[in-house]
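User: I'm new to structure prediction. If I give you an amino acid sequence, what do you actually give back? Let's try with this one:
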Amino acid sequence: MIGLIQILGGLALFLFGIRMLSGGMEKIAGEQIQKWLDRMTSNRIKSAAFGTIATAMLQSSGLLMVMMIGLINANLMTVAKAIGVMLGQEIGTTLTAQIVAFDIGYYRLLLVIVGLIFIEFFEERGWKKYGEILFGLGIIFIGMSYMSKSLDELIKIGWISNGLVTMGQTPMVAVVAGLIMTAITQSSTAVTSLVVAMGMSMGPTGNPIITLSGAVGLILGANIGSCITGLIASIRLSAAAKQASFAQIFINVLGVALFLPFISQYAGLVELTSSQLPRQIANAHTIFNLVVSLALFPFVKQIAWVAERLAPVKPSKTKPRLTAYIDEMQIKVPAVALTEAARELTRLGEASAEMLEQSCQALVGKNTELAKHVMEREDKFIDPVFKLTVDFVNKLLLQDDLTNEQKKRCFQLKNLLMDIERVGDMAEDISQYTMNRIQNNLHFSDDALVDLNRLWPNVVNTYRTALKAFETSDKKMAEVACRLESEFDLMYWEARQHHIDRLNEGICTSEAHVVFTEVLRILERVSDHADNLGVSVMRA
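Assistant: Good question. You get back a string of structure tokens that encode the predicted 3D arrangement of the chain. For your 540 residues, that looks like this:
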């Protein structure tokens, strides 16, 4: 019983260490991974390279798989590209097994000590993420040590000893056991590392408690079990997301099927790579994933075809998405989630800029249909997308592993979303004044129309310049937007004075006066919101 508690405790420490390590690596490399994601998934070779590097850096194939499903669900990645990433991901997962196969002795405690110092005392210098990596590595090795020592005791229990012997003699039993263990722990990395720990443990006879053949069987089963995370994540998502999950299952099951009949021969070859069983187990894991990925790499299109047949898209049941970039699955990788939220904000901003332009055109040209289109777009697009995006950012803020920079970015996005939503509201207000002008046959003088036609293109240009500055993080362009806003203020006061002069001369009626001055005020407020965008970019 004590041995079981020790092994579960060691496994818990190991999983906690992996989480700490993954969190630290994500904070360091998350933004870079997002940049690579944009550039390196244009073809199969780049996709595979990205999958290998990203998984090695994040130390979590499950996290990457969930992130990809989120991108697929948001229509930002095709299934074929995702399959290329998966094949690279299979290679990247082998790094952990290679690391834990080392016996670093009491240096593991030094890693924990230094990591804790960085976390507790150097957060202001931005060293906390490095501390999380060191602390996580130390905890991983401590967990491995506990698992290895507890296995020495567990092997004395008859049914466990007999089970390990059976796995060595009948690899299929080991495959099933590895699959079940991975499905329970939701971590193929943990199961593979546990198998490495078995290789470090000695039985009463002085021999390792597991044979290499049995260890290989467990690893093969763990590879299939690793698909469970992606499958669960895709259950309620789009057909394309299910296709990605089925593709991963197909890749891993086919790989295991190819190796299963030759486990004994394969184990014999792997024995030549090292004299130590833990390293042999790690090498078996690496070679298997490398060979399977290389073998299946030319057949990405065929795998995608099979996945499409297993989870066909049914257009009649597919609901149109209001958002184009964000998906809740992305929240598990904050750097990616923030980038996609910024893209959604830019998309919303462009829609509001288009509405602003159309509403002004409708007002000047007395275009009823255009005014109605703007009001409909405000209700059916701007408001719901604004709410969905704000909710997405709020959920991201609830994550406890955000850096201070990421938290600041979240609050910046929320504030700017409010600005953009207000611009959408103002475009709707102008459209309502358009309907008022048309229904009451309100006349604007030629001079009034000249002023309007000088003002509204200027404010639309200012707003779009500020949006572009945000999209590109261009501080010089943000300065231009702020300067344009100052110039607009002068134009606004000139237009107001011209209007007062016309009012005094009796050229403008009181009814038209209300509409005209309100529209001028709205345009001035839009200009202020553009200034908010520009200032936010300059302060970032």
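You can read the tokens as a compact description of the fold. Here is one thing that stands out. The longest helix spans residues 2-39.
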